[in-house]
């Protein structure tokens, strides 16, 4: 084969649509099978509405930025109507509860933005007062993952209270993806809330958190593992944390009947499935550690004489 023939054949191959190499019967059979309407969880999900995750994430990020940073009236006059219109379109993509309309939800949600801003201002103050590493309020607003997660939660929570389906959960998952902090939009969180570091924090749907509460990384406020989830929907499954409680890293607190009393301090790596009274100090028994002296630096194995 000459060099010219090689170029000619290569050019022909490049112009060929790759799908022409696939048996059309296989393509049609696949399309027919995928288009068959079956009563499955995926078909039910589609019928309930599947809004675009990217659009929802962008909307909540812009709304977060508005409540945290925008104060100029001229900018707000432009941004508030823009966000209202985008929320209206997102609400049209989900099945709203009977008796509600997209416009009605938007009109109920917008007046709540000043209250959300007020709570976030207190959250930022709590972070500044509670973290000696903080150098400025701007640093906290811009760089602290907990403020980002809490801000998105407070926005999503208001939509959750308005019985909006799907969208609040997509917002909380956006925060989870970006910060490692997983807060269900149904959780009720009081004023001056601070999460230090924050990676790995999980706060379940029916958790109730009072004022002036501080959590550290790796805290789980969860539920005991259910076997029949249907019977527990709408039932309180997650703990109640009263005012002025500090919960250190790696703590797991499970159960809807569990209450951590006001002013308590829960030490790191504690596992709790029972309530503790106000003013408690709870610590895990320290593990036993063994130290071997006269260790040979050339020996990289662990050998213990028990």
Description:
The chain has 306 residues and is α/β, with parallel strands linked by helices. It has two domains: 49-180, serine acetyltransferase, domain 1, CATH 1.10.3130; 187-285, Hexapeptide repeat proteins (UDP N-Acetylglucosamine Acyltransferase, domain 1). The chain is built from ten helices and 14 strands. The protein has helices at residues 3-15, 24-35, 41-48, 53-69, 73-91, 102-109, 113-130, 137-143, 145-161, 167-179, and strands at 182-183, 188-189, 194-195, 202-203, 208-209, 214-215, 220-222, 240-241, 246-247, 252-254, 259-260, 265-266, 271-272, 281-282. The strands form three sheets. The chain has a five-stranded parallel beta sheet. The chain has a five-stranded parallel beta sheet with strand order 3-6-9-12-14. It has a four-stranded parallel beta sheet with strand order 2-5-8-11, with no helix packed on it. α4 crosses α10 and α9 (145-161) packs antiparallel against α10 (167-179). The longest helix is centred in the first third of the chain and has 19 residues, at 73-91.
Query: Care to count the β-strands?
Result: 14
The N- to C-terminal Cα distance equals: 78 Å
Task: Indicate the percent of residues in helices.
Answer: 40-55%
Record the strand order, biggest sheet: 1-4-7-10-13
Radius of gyration: 27 Å
**CATH class bucket of the largest domain:** Mainly Alpha
Count of runs of 4 or more consecutive helical residues: 10
Biggest beta sheet summary: 5 strands, parallel
Mean pLDDT: 91
**Would you identify the regions where 5 or more consecutive residues have pLDDT less than 50?**
1-12
Q: Which assembly state applies to the chains in this document? A: single chain
The ordered H/E elements are HHHHHHHHHHEEEEEEEEEEEEEE
